[in-house]
Amino acid sequence: KLWSRTTKDSTSEDQLIIKKCLNTEVETLGNIRHKNIVKLYSYFSNFDCHLLVYDYMPNGNLWDALHKGWFHLDWPNRHQIALGVAQGLAYLHHDLLPPIVHRDIKSTNILLDINYQPKVADFGIAKVLKDSTSTIIAGTYGYLAPEYAFSNKAKTKCDVYSFGVVLMELITGKKPVDADFGEIAMCCTCKNPSQRPTMNEVVQLLIQTDPCLTDPYKFSTKTRDASNVTENQPEEVES
């Protein structure tokens, strides 16, 4: 799959931003190998055009699958997608040193292969957590964690919040809804970041809520707060 960003008609400032995003994506994905993270094969860059070469994803992205009705995602497929994204994020947060915060987890950045296995994509604004967690705000309205929008500090719990919103997207439009699945999503989107689970914990909870299990794990939380998801694609923000 060829993915490109052209800069021929862009301003000098736009070109610098695009080049920075390209460099971030290449540097980040060049060192990452995980089944649920998109694989970067090669890239090409010159003044007029930037190309990134990835695996071809025949089923597009999760947003289109959920909101455009191109094909039906049954409950086992939705669970598989949620678990795969959680495992990819858990790898970024817990298996890498220093950890990486994606900063823009949303359904359009989750690609689906021929078997509906999810691949987390678009690392153009990813943040490597070293000594400092301060950064400019970058992401998408509706998926941004509240504390990130106010403090300009990107931490792993910001990705957890965004993942919770994606879980809510997976739940809506499919009935009956697994109550445990909804509880995990609501916990991920808790306003207090200290009360959100880690991605390793999310992975374990999702494994326990596999629809094939007869006695799913009962996940309880007092939190009942989640972001609303609109039918239109949310607006990206960078300031």
List the keywords:
EC 2.7.11.1, Transferase(Phosphotransferase), domain 1, globular, 239 residues, 9 strands, transferase, 3-stranded antiparallel β-sheet, 14% strand, two-stranded antiparallel sheet, 7 helices, ATP binding, alpha+beta
Question: How would you explain this protein's 3D organization?
Answer:
- Keywords: ATP-binding, Kinase, Nucleotide-binding, Serine/threonine-protein kinase, Transferase.
- One of its GO terms (molecular function) is protein serine/threonine kinase activity.
- It catalyses: L-seryl-[protein] + ATP = O-phospho-L-seryl-[protein] + ADP + H(+); L-threonyl-[protein] + ATP = O-phospho-L-threonyl-[protein] + ADP + H(+).
- The structure is a single chain.
- Strand 5 and strand 6 (118-120) form a beta hairpin.
- The radius of gyration is 18 Å and the shape is globular.
- The chain is α+β, with helices and mostly antiparallel strands and 239 residues long.
- A three-stranded antiparallel β-sheet has the order 1-3-2, covered by helices on one side. Strands 4-7 form a two-stranded antiparallel ribbon.
- The protein is built from seven helices and nine strands.
- It has two domains: 2-54, no CATH class; 62-238, Transferase(Phosphotransferase) domain 1 (Transferase(Phosphotransferase), domain 1, Orthogonal Bundle).
Shape: globular
CATH fourth-tier homologous superfamily of the largest domain: Transferase(Phosphotransferase) domain 1
DSSP summary: helix tally: 7
Report the end-to-end length measured between terminal Cα atoms: 30 Å
Mean pLDDT: 76
- Placed side by side, the strands forming the largest sheet appear as 1-3-2
Ranges with pLDDT <50 over ≥5 residues? 1-8, 214-231
The CATH topology assignment of the largest domain is Transferase(Phosphotransferase), domain 1
- Quickly give the CATH architecture of the largest domain: Orthogonal Bundle
Count of separate structural domains: 2
Please estimate the helix content: 25-40%
Specify the structural class. Answer: alpha+beta
Portion in strands: 5-15%
CATH class of the largest domain: Mainly Alpha
Number of strands: 9
Radius of gyration: 18 Å
Largest sheet report: 3 strands, antiparallel
Topology order in helix (H) and strand (E) letters: EHEEHHEEEEEHHHHE
